[in-house]
Amino acid sequence: MSRQCQRSGLRFRTGRLDLNDIWDFISNRRSQLVTDSYLHVSAVIQCVLLATVIGVVVGVAVYRSPAGSALATALSSAILTVPSFALLGLLIPLFGLGVVPTVIALTLYSLLPIIRNTIVGLAAVDPAITDAAKGIGMNPWRVLGRIELVLAWPSILTGMRVSTQLAMGILAIAAYAKGPGLGNLIFSGLSRIGSPTAVPQALVGTVLVVILALILDAIYVVIGKLTTSKGIRD
């Protein structure tokens, strides 16, 4: 037993990791890993959907105005210049720990790609198409909903795709504010470096974030093919 402990201690001190340690950790914590993965994906999807509603509304409101578009893009860009730890630190005194500051932070960080791509997508719609729609009696709201947003949808979806990948990583950092997801697993492992399960815990949490991000990205590709007409894709 003592020799095994000595070998284990030497392995972690020298930075090496046995794959058996990782497999044992996954086997012993399977239920926790499934729960944390579900919470991570669920939080990201909900925040990106919220950011999409806000971003599309903002994009629709400003895309015809160069000054308004520049202002909306600049403000949403400024949010990304704030380090996630700093933003969470500012939100914690106002909203406490847990879900609320996490949702606010993720939503704010997800806005820029969606706002920018909404503006770009709507601005790229051929005016001849909208003029023809108005010529057959469609009011501005119907033109927006049935023509412009439909044509801008691939661009908006791309913005959602980028925001999702961004939010997947930021949510891991949101464990600092006791947010849900795999970040708690990573932070817990990093805080216990030196213990037998520390490195497997941090590594498994990190790898799961990457795998889930790739799965969500593939889902976006499928959604894009199912919801975009062939003519627009071409």
UniProtKB/TrEMBL annotation:
<protein>
    <submittedName>
        <fullName>Osmoprotectant transport system permease protein</fullName>
    </submittedName>
</protein>
<dbReference type="GO" id="GO:0005886">
    <property type="term" value="C:plasma membrane"/>
</dbReference>
<feature type="domain" description="ABC transmembrane type-1">
    <location>
        <begin position="37"/>
        <end position="220"/>
    </location>
</feature>
<feature type="transmembrane region" description="Helical">
    <location>
        <begin position="202"/>
        <end position="223"/>
    </location>
</feature>
<keyword id="KW-0472">Membrane</keyword>
<keyword id="KW-0812">Transmembrane</keyword>
<feature type="transmembrane region" description="Helical">
    <location>
        <begin position="166"/>
        <end position="190"/>
    </location>
</feature>
<dbReference type="GO" id="GO:0031460">
    <property type="term" value="P:glycine betaine transport"/>
</dbReference>
<dbReference type="InterPro" id="IPR051204">
    <property type="entry name" value="ABC_transp_perm/SBD"/>
</dbReference>
<keyword id="KW-1133">Transmembrane helix</keyword>
<feature type="transmembrane region" description="Helical">
    <location>
        <begin position="38"/>
        <end position="63"/>
    </location>
</feature>
<comment type="similarity">
    <text>Belongs to the binding-protein-dependent transport system permease family.</text>
</comment>
<keyword id="KW-0813">Transport</keyword>
<dbReference type="Pfam" id="PF00528">
    <property type="entry name" value="BPD_transp_1"/>
</dbReference>
<dbReference type="InterPro" id="IPR000515">
    <property type="entry name" value="MetI-like"/>
</dbReference>
<dbReference type="GO" id="GO:0055085">
    <property type="term" value="P:transmembrane transport"/>
</dbReference>
<dbReference type="InterPro" id="IPR035906">
    <property type="entry name" value="MetI-like_sf"/>
</dbReference>
<feature type="transmembrane region" description="Helical">
    <location>
        <begin position="94"/>
        <end position="112"/>
    </location>
</feature>
